[in-house]
Design brief:
The chain is α+β, with helices and mostly antiparallel strands. The protein has nine helices and 15 strands.
Length: 352
């Protein structure tokens, strides 16, 4: 259950002579979707991006028979929507975006089967909506430069009931509206593409600070999701040992693929600074989801840092160094040929 999407799911069909098909309790799966379409006649569906990714990976043909599929709310998988568009040519696939404060959806992007691999853009504004990509001084940024997304137009709410302080922070004066309107500060980081679309980068409050560096988790997820053999990616900062915060990424391999975490780490290192390379990259069959279809952070497994099997220590000095590595990294053992950083080490641990 996602509140703002329910306004679209309930009122759009009822106000236009349609009817509503209520899905069974729990997380929607491919079988329940197929039943809704072929038994109950459902023709349109909205689902969170994470849930869409799961069904698209396990049974992309489950969307066949629908007239419209809308998905949004999180970073899109690199080719899930394209795959569904190819397998269900009579189904219109839309990548949609919109905070609750702007009345459900504010932008949309029609995804075609021939779209290049990679997360699709969130597109352009709906009729009656306007968008601006601005820097910290509310100045427009050029194409390709990351800025914060602001939304204006008929869908923008009046504010938060009984919370004037928060309303003043998020609903700000629109300097581009001569009539004196307001715009909503989304907190989402985006950029203009060369062809005039909006590409989602991540949340501004998804920025974390780790060992003195500011890190955009969305950039790491985008980079991993663009790697060959990766269907989906999610990055977090974990503190499984008190005082030892580590950057960890979880990846869902594409069907039939088995990307090597070490290769993925090297790919991230070629695109991003060294401090943005995850200490561990954990393959999962699927990202765990909450009942409303969002990634369940608490259900993500603790990464295992295992030494590479290799030769034993040959000298007393090697034996001492391996023991120090293992002690600092919290491992039972470490070998002389193991990579300190590949085992979860970082600059602060090295100082110990």
């Amino acid at each position: 259950y996602v509140f703002d999407a329910s306004t679209f799911e309930i009122w759009a069909p009822l106000l236009h002579g349609g009817r509503i098909v209520v899905a069974p309790e729990g997380v929607l799966d491919a079988r329940a979707l197929d039943d809704a379409v072929h038994t109950h006649g459902a023709t349109a569906v909205f689902m969170t991006t994470a849930l869409f990714n799961v069904i698209a990976e396990t049974d992309p043909g489950a969307f066949t028979g629908l007239r419209l599929v809308c998905a949004g709310g999180e970073l899109a998988s690199p080719d899930a929507m394209q795959r569904v568009a190819a397998l269900a040519p009579d189904t219109r696939v839309l990548h949609v975006y919109g905070p609750t404060e702007t009345t459900t959806f504010a932008t949309r992007y029609p995804v075609a089967a021939g779209l290049p691999a990679g997360p699709p853009p969130i597109g352009r504004p709906l009729d009656g909506m306007r968008l601006h990509v601005l820097d910290d001084s509310l100045r427009p940024v050029p194409p390709g430069v990351v800025g914060e997304l602001y939304l204006a137009g008929h869908g923008v709410a009046r504010g938060y009931t009984g919370r004037p302080g928060l309303t003043a922070t998020r609903f700000v004066a629109d300097p581009f509206d001569a009539a004196g309107g307001r715009m909503y500060r989304t907190g989402d980081l985006v950029r203009w593409t060369p062809d005039g679309q909006i590409a989602y980068v991540g949340r501004s409050d998804g920025q974390v600070k780790l060992r003195g560096y500011r890190i955009e988790l969305g950039e790491i997820e985008n980079t991993l999701a663009s790697c060959q053999g990766v269907a989906d990616a999610f990055a977090v900062v974990r503190e499984d040992t008190p005082g030892d915060r580590r950057l960890v990424a979880y990846v869902v391999p594409a069907s039939g693929a088995g990307p090597d975490p070490a290769d993925l780490a090297r790919a991230v290192g070629r695109s991003l600074p060294a401090y943005m390379v995850p200490s561990a990259i954990v393959p999962l069959d699927a990202l765990p989801l909450t009942p409303n279809g969002k990634v369940d952070r608490r259900a993500l497994p603790v990464p295992e840092y295992a030494p590479v099997s290799g030769r034993p220590a040959r000298t007393a000095r090697e034996e001492i160094l391996c023991g120090l590595f293992a002690d600092v990294l919290g491992l039972d053992a470490a070998g002389p040929d193991d990579d300190f950083f590949a085992l979860g080490g970082h600059s602060l641990l090295a100082t110990r």
